[in-house]
Amino acid sequence: MTATGQHSRVILLLCFISTAACNMFAFTEEPSDRVGKSDGYCSRILRAQSNRKEVNTEFRLRVEGDPESYQPGSTYRVTLIASSPSYFRGFTLIALKAGTEGDRDEDYIGNFQIIDEEETQFMTNCPHAVTESTPRRRTSIQVFWTAPPSGSGCLLLKASIVQKRIIYFQDEGSLTKRMCEKDTTDKPLLDCCACGTAKYRVTFYGNWSEKIHPKDYPRRANHWSAIIGASHSKNYVLWEYGGFSSEGVKQVAELGSPVKMEEEIRQKGDDVLTVIKMKAQWPAWQPPNVRAAPSAEFSVDRTRHIMSFLTMLGPSPDWNVGLAAEDLCTKECGWVQKVVQDLIPWDAGTDSGVTYESPNKPTVPQDKIRPLTSLDHPQSPFYDPEGGAITPVARVVVERIARKGEQCNIVPDNVDDIVADIAQEEKEEDDTPETCIYSNWSPWSACSSATCEKGKRMRQRMLKAQLDLSVPCPHTQDFEPCMGPGCSDEDASTCMMSEWITWSPCSMSCGMGSRSRERYVKQFPDDGSVCTLPTEETENCVVNEECTPSSCLVTEWGEWDVCSATCGLGMKRRERMVKMPPADGSICGAEVLEVEKCMMPECHTIPCMLTPWSDWSDCSVTCGKGMRTRQRMLKSPVELGECTEELEQVEKCMLPECPIDCVMTEWTEWSECNKSCGKGHTIRRRVVNLEPQFGGDPCSETIQRKKCKIRKCNRGQANSDEKKRRKEQREKRRSKQELHHHTFLCGGGIQERLMTVKQRFKTAQLSSCKDRKEIRACNVHPC
C-alpha cells in the first residue's frame, strides 16, 4: 500500500468517529462504498474503536442520577463532560446491546433525542449515533435517551472523543456506561390479609432551609402549604409518578390550597377511611425547640391500608413533596410498625417554571408527575452540573401507635409491638393532655415584619399545673402568619407584583414584529378584590430590517459578555448568528459581532477580598424584640485602597414576650378603729392595676389588718353607745345621701361613707367624740 493510500485510510477512520475529524482535513474524497443505511457504516465505527484504545480520565460519560440500572421506557439525560482545562471538538455517542458487535440495526438499543440542534445531530450514515453539529471547542454536551422496553437486558452507552487530532474511546471506563434492566419484580399492591385496625401518627419534618439549600433560597416567603392526604384503598390514587395531576393536586402544587384536594378525597366515599390534614408552616424551617413538627393521626383497616399525602414547597412553580401509596399492611398479615423516608421535591407537570419564583407558565399539554433532578435546568435551585442527587428537603415518619380488634399476624409480636399498642385516650384537636392545666391564651404579639410584608406573630399561655409529671405539657406557644404594620387600609385593595422578566424573542425574523414580557402577582389583595395591574407588556421589534432576496436573516443579539476588566476601562462583546444566507447566493453583510467599551468602578475601589459572612449572633435581648448582627472581615491588604463594602449587617429578631410582673397601687391610709371603745381593728387596702403575664411575678395580698384599742368601755355606757351606733348604721343604710360612691367599673376604685355626731356629751371622757369616715376599695379586677 502506498503512503498516500495509508494516509487516506487514517482520515477515513477519523470521519467514522466524528464529523469534527473530517473537518480538520481538506478531505474531499468520498468512500466508494458509502451508503445511506446504518448497516456496515456503524459497525466500521465500532471496529475502528476496537482497534485503538486510550485510557483517559479527562472525559466522562454520565447518566442522570448515576443509576446502576435503567427503568424500561424511562427517559434519562446523558451528559458528556470534559474536566477543566480539557475540551473536545467532536464526539460520537451510541447505545448498544451488551455482547453484540453493532453489525445489525437490532444491536442498537433505546432512542436518543436531540436537546440542542446547534450542538448535536444524528450521524448521517449511522442514524443510531449522535455526533456534533459543528466542530468547535466545547466542554460538555447533553442529549436525552429513552430506555428500551422491558426484556431488553443489559446495554452499553459508549462515547468517543475527538480532541485536536487525537481520538479517545474505551470499551470500559469513564466513556462507557453499562446498565441492566431494573428488577421489576415489585408486585402491584395486593389485597391486605391483616385483621382489626391500626392507628398511626404521621409527623412531617421540613428540612428545606437556606443553610442546606442556599441557591436562590426565598428568604421572605418560604413555607410549606397545609398538608392534605388520606388513608385509602388501592382503588384510589391520590398521586403517583408517571400519572397526571388531578385538579386537586394542581391547586395544592400551584396555589398551596388543599380545599379542592380534600373535596376530591371525600368524594371517594368508602375508598377513604381517614382524611389527613396538618397546618401550614411559616417559615418552612423552624428549630424543634420553637415549635413542634406538624403531625396527624389516622387509621387503616384491611380494605383501606394505603396512605398518601402531599404538601407544596412554597414559593415554587408546581413543586411538592409527599408519599404516594405507602402500604402499611405486611405480607405476614400484620401492620407496619414504622416508616421513615426522606423526601425530594417532585414536579406536578402543570407549570413549566424552573426557579422558586418563576412567573406562571402553564404546561400545555400537561406533563406527567416526575421527580425533580439536578440536571433539569441550569437556573434550577437544585442544579448540579455533575448530576448528583438532590439533598432531601423533608423527612416523614409514620409510626404505629395502637392496634384495635383481634389481630392475625403470622409473626409473633415483639416487645416493640406490645409497647406500641398501649392505647391512647382520644384527644382534643389541640392535643392538650388532660393532666395539663393552662391559662387562657395571651393576646397576639406584634407582627415580626416591620413593613407591609408577610411575617409571623405569636401568642403564649402559662402552664398553671402539671398533674402528672410523667406526661409532658406542650404547646405553650402558638404562631400564625401576619402582615406587617406598614399595610394601611388602602393597601388592602392593592396587589404586589414581581419584576418584569426578559423580553420574548421577536415574533418576526424579518421586518416589523412584536415581542412581549410578563410578570406575575406575588400577593393578591387582602380584601379579596381583583388585581387590575397588567401582567403582560407588548412592543414592536425589528431583527432584520430588509426582507429582499439579497439580504440574510440573522438571530437576535445575544446577551453582552461580562466586561473584560474587573476595574477601570474594558471591553464587552455580544454575538448573533446567521440563520439563513441570502437567497440569491450573495455574501451576507450583516454584522454578527458587536464590541463596545465598558467602564467598571475605579480600580483602587475594587480590591475587597472578604471572608464569608459569620453566623448571626444571638438576639440582643432574652425576650421580646431585639437585634442581631453578623460580620465579615477584609482579607485584602490596606495598601490596595479603601474597601467600601459593608462589614457588618444588623437585622431585627423576635423572641418570646418578656414576663410582666403584677403591678399594684400604693397602700391606702389605715382606717379608723372599728370600735369607739375597747378592742377593735383597723385595715388598709390596695388594688391590682395589671395582672401578671408571660410568667411574671404574681400579685401579693390586697388587704392588711391590725389590732386597735382606743380606751376601755364603761359598762353601762358601752351598751348605750353600742345601741346608738347600731341605730345610726341602720339609718345610714336607709339614707342614700349619706353613702357616697367613687367607683369605676374596672381597674380599681374607692368607696367611702361618713358618720356624723348627732349629740355631744359634756363629759370629759367623751370630749374626743367626732365625725368619722370609712374608705374601702372596689372593682379591683383589671379592665
For the structure shown, list the relevant keywords:
seven-stranded antiparallel β-sheet; seven-stranded mixed β-sheet; 7 helices; 783 residues; mainly beta
Question: Can you put this structure into words, describing what you see?
Answer:
- This is Spondin-1.
- 9% of the residues lie in helices and 31% in strands.
- It is mainly beta.
- Residues 1-17, 23-39, 50-54, 422-429, 488-492 and 736-743 have low confidence and may be disordered.
- A hairpin with a 6-residue loop joins β41 (739-742) and β42.
- It is elongated.
- The protein is built from 7 helices and 43 strands.
Summarize the structure.
With 783 residues, the chain is mostly beta strands. The protein contains 7 helices and 43 strands. Residues 720-739 have a biased composition (Basic and acidic residues).
